[in-house]
Amino acid sequence: MAAQVSYDEVETGTELPARSFPVTRETLVRYAGASGDFNPIHWNERFAKQVGLPDVIAHGMFTMAEAIRVVTDWAGDPAAVVEYGVRFTKPVVVPDDDQGAVIEVSAKVAAKLDDQARTVRVDLVATCAGQKVLGMSRAVVRLA
Amino acid sequence: MALDQSFVGRTYPATEPYEVGREKIREFAEAIGDTNPAYTDPEAARALGHPDVIAPPTFVFAITYRAAGQVVTDPQLGLDFSRVVHGDQQFAYTRPVRAGDRLSATSTIEVIKSLAGNDVLTIRGEVHDQHGEHVVTTHMKLVARAAEEA
């Protein structure tokens, strides 16, 4: 474990660098292949609309994977993440155009948990088109 | 129809080992656009103290989700999978998943409840390596939306 951020240097309220993650139909096809999740709501507009969705939506697990990058990029070693959990509150709708959608992720240190284990709780906020797409999005991170 | 509460605590057989390969981790990292060298460069991973490249935190979901397939398709449980959405997902790691791991997942039904006609099912996944050592515990909450009135 080799986190590059020191526990002693962070405080409750410390903000992590925010990121924007674009997602297009091509992104979803790639993610489907890499993850093995071929549910057609993530690539077939006709099917998505038949089941009552406005359009194709991103895999919730894709959004979850993008959001934690704000933490792993900050910490340096991805293994610094010892716990991670989210609630899927709204779908990320991905139109069939060149822009697709953009997932905006911000995060801050919500609490210093354990001086011995050097762990902090990071709360994440992920939005798309102004709506929160993840709720209760939290990670426990072990710092240097 | 509400799910049978007596299924709470039921554990399903461990899955056959999934062998984690460097190239599968690379494919997954590229699919999420993550260029962290710990996922693709063994030297960079070793510099961080890992024996080989590690996987992004959510990579293991593919393994626990497949294991949970035994639960959601259990005809005795009778979940209507066509109405299921993914509610919550949690991971608690003992260590990161890494190339060379042979991982088995065991699924246990932890919670069954009914909320406003929706069935809520929480499945815990315990992932162990080929040495029997714990790697990660996952929780997946599924919500089966109530069927529309006929």
Automatic annotation (TrEMBL), chain A:
Gene3D superfamilies with a match to the protein in the record: Hotdog Thioesterase
Segments passing through the bilayer: none
MaoC-like domain boundaries: 16-122
Family statement drawn from the similarity comment of this UniProt entry: Belongs to the enoyl-CoA hydratase/isomerase family.
Protein name: MaoC family dehydratase
From TrEMBL, chain B:
InterPro entries named among the record's database cross-references: FAS1-like_DH_region, HadA-like, HotDog_dom_sf, UPF0336/Enoyl-CoA_hydratase
Domain FAS1-like dehydratase: 6-137
Membrane-traversing stretches: none
Pfam families: FAS1_DH_region
UniProt record similarity statement: Belongs to the UPF0336 family.
UniProt-listed HAMAP family: UPF0336
The protein's name: UPF0336 protein AB0L16_29205
Organism: Streptomyces orinoci (Streptoverticillium orinoci)
